[in-house]
Structures are given as C-alpha cells and as structure tokens.
Amino acid sequence: MTEHKKEFFMRDPWKFDPNFKRPARANDELGFDTRSLHAGFHPNEDMERFRAFVPPIVPSMTYPYRDFDHIPYPVYARTKTPTADILEQRIAALEGGEAAVTAGSGSQALFNLIFTIARPGDNIVTSLYTFGEGYKQAASIFPERCGVNFRFVEDPADPKSWDKQIDTKTKLVWVETPSNPTLYVTDLKAVAEVAHARNVPMMVDNTTATAALQRPMDFGADIVLLSITKFMAGNATVLGGAIVGPEDLTEDIRWNTTEFVGSIMQPFDSWLTIQYLETLGMRMDKHSFNTQKVAEYLTDHPKVKLVNYPGLDTHPQYELAKKQMKSAGGMLSFVVEGGIPSARTLMNSLKLIVHAVTFGTSRTICMHPRTITHEHMTQEERDIAGIDDGLIRVSVGLENYNDLIADLEQALAKV
C-alpha cells in the first residue's frame, strides 16, 4: 500500500478549515495563457520523466513495482494516470487551487464530491439555478438513496436567504454562476462570507465561465467544480470533469471514492484536454465577443421576449458580472414568443446552428431546457428558475457572428 493510500484510508474524512491558506506555488506569478501552456509539464524540466516537447499519452492502467518495498505512484489507473496527473496540475494552476482530481464527467465530479464529504442526515445548501443533472442529484438521487438532503434558497441574491438554510449539518454551500441555462449571476463574495461565518465551505461550478473569465477562489470559493466536457475541451470530443480544492480534499475523493467508483478520465481524453487548454484563453475571448453580438441582435428582435446574457446592461446582475468576470462568456438563452410550438418551429428551421445536448463547443449549438435538461423540475421550480416553455439555450461558437445572426434571422421569420 502506498504512503498516500495509507494516509487517506486511515484518516478521518476531510474537514473544512476556514483558516486554510493555499501555499504559494511557482506558477502563481505566471499569466493565464502561460499557465495554460506550461503548468504540470515543461519540456526543459521534465526530461527525466518524459523526454518530449509535447506531454505524452501513457495508456497503461497498471504500473510496475521496482521491487517489493518500492511501491509506484500511481499504482493503478483508478486513482491516477501520468497523463491525468499533468492535466490535474494544469487545471489547479488555472483555477488558483492547491490540487485537482478528475472524473469521468462533470456530473460524476459533483457526485464524487458530495459522496465523499456528506453522510446520511447531512445537507447541502444550493439554489435552483443549477444544471439539470445536478438538480436531479439534489432533488432525488442523494435524498432518496443516500439520506443527504438539499436545501434550495428562496432568494439567491439575498445573503440572508443563504444563511437561513445553513445549520450544523450543512456540509457544503453550492453555487453555479453564471447559471445554466438562464445565466443568473450569484455574488460570490457575499455568499462566501455567509458560508465561512458558519464554518461551511463554498463550492462554485465554474463550467460556463472557466478560469479564463472568472476565478471563484479569488472571491472566497474553497472548491471549484468543472465539466471539462464543455468550454475547457471546447469541441465535443472529450467527456470529463474535475474538482479543484485543498489537496486533503482531492486526495480524500481520489482514494476513498474514485478508486472504488472507478469513473475516471481516460489517458487519451486527458491528453486531448491538455492540448485544448493551450488555447482556452483565446477561445473564451472569441466566444464572448460572438455571444455579445448575438445577444444584442436578439434583444432588438420583436419576436423575442427576453434575452439572458450578463454582457447586456439590461441583465439584472450586469454590474456584478463586470466585477466577477473578465467578460460574459459564450452562452446565452432567450425566450421566443409562443412557447414550445414557437421554439420547435424556430429550432427546426435553423440551418447553421445545430440542435444538440451540450454546450461550450467550437460550433454553435442550441437546445430546449424545458423538455431536455430541466424536465425533472416541477413547474413551480421552473417558474422560479426562469425555465420558460419558450426558452432556448444557445452556446455560441467560433463562427463569423454575422452568419449566426443570419441563421437566427431566417428561423425567427418562420415563427
């Protein structure tokens, strides 16, 4: 048994330390784009490990012992692979966290975190502004199968609403911002202050913004959840997720949950993501630029009731978004007049924009939250979260924005 394995099997479950300060690391002084290229692997520094300019793929799922007394680390692929190790170091450096642990998907990463830190009778505090699969875990899977309850705050804009739901059994405050699909922006600093006053960690889902546009840990977050599948990979070829946070936590997840659940990022997917992260900053700038143009066009269209995009000065959290984000990101949603029939007509009329279930891809895609990702919500919950029958989510890609607007124009003309 490795020393890492001994340490995390014999210790108590991870406990949140409100006074924890991440130690400074060599990458901290480097710019975002430099970290995207060099964190976790540098050709000059890694010659003994890998004599290569590009980080290699190590597809092995087991690793030989040198001798009886010298146990390798990694020892087996359910805990870590050399390629995933590079990716985890890079993600942690980009988010500003101490360490990271990857998972088979973003939803799996969320499951691994909650399964690791919560026990029957515990609770998690969150809002209805979360991704659909996360809501399903919160509303039924964990309460019914694990005895872990979720409390949804009434008013996410009011810190007192968050504080009201926290008690001595609360293990985590979970925020998603900007939210999927209505792009609600939560005040990270305000919620972090509430959580920390109660000695509870705050986790932020940073999938829609990525560290290129928003660093939750700079505003008090203790843990970051990521779906690598989305903007981080950027082209719908990779499935993966990650948790970033204190090393004690990520190793607790690794040794006491991931090793047994077994849902990991495979070496090839990890390797692809390392390459894709090299252009993350540039891609997110382009996504944001295009999305701003499309949002401005939709705002002026007579058949569009509402546009959700934090880059518009009509957005309720516009000023907050400017404080927390470099730019407003690559996703918007809008409500078309006429509910589901109009949404169906519009989406079936699109020629360039693709109807598909994901976001954060280089090609522009759209989907209908009411009938796909958020169908598990009650109607009352959808009303609270802004999931209108006519709501369409658009992940704006890297095309020429004029071509995207032209496609929307001809489709809206048929509504």
Question: What key phrases describe this protein's structure?
Answer:
single chain; 415 residues; alpha/beta; Aspartate Aminotransferase, domain 2; Aspartate Aminotransferase, domain 1; 2 domains; seven-stranded mixed beta sheet; five-stranded mixed beta sheet; 14 helices; 12 strands
What does this structure look like?
By secondary structure, the protein is α/β, with parallel strands linked by helices. 38% of the residues lie in helices and 13% in strands. It contains 14 helices and twelve strands. The chain has helices at 3-10, 32-38, 82-95, 106-117, 132-146, 159-165, 188-197, 247-261, 267-277, 280-299, 318-324, 339-349, 379-385, 401-412; strands at 99-103, 123-126, 149-152, 170-176, 202-205, 223-227, 241-245, 304-308, 331-336, 354-355, 365-367, 391-395. The strands form two sheets. A seven-stranded mixed beta sheet has the order 1-7-6-5-4-2-3, with helices on both faces. A five-stranded mixed beta sheet has the order 8-9-12-11-10. The longest helix is centred in the last third of the chain and has 20 residues, at 280-299.
Short description:
With about 425 residues, this protein is an alpha/beta fold. The protein has helices spanning about 5-10, 30-40, 80-95, 105-115, 130-145, 160-165, 190-195, 245-260, 265-275, 280-300, 320-325, 340-350, 380-385, 400-410; strands at about 100-105, 125, 150, 170-175, 200-205, 225, 240-245, 305-310, 330-335, 355, 365, 390-395.
CATH topology name of the largest domain: Aspartate Aminotransferase, domain 2
Low-confidence stretches: none
Gross geometry: globular
Count of helical regions: 14
The N- and C-terminal alpha carbons lie at a distance of: 64 Å
Average pLDDT value? 94
As a whole number of angstroms, the C-alpha radius of gyration is 21 Å
List the strand order in the largest sheet: 1-7-6-5-4-2-3
Helix- and strand-based class?
alpha/beta
The domain count comes to 2
- How many β-strands, per DSSP? 12
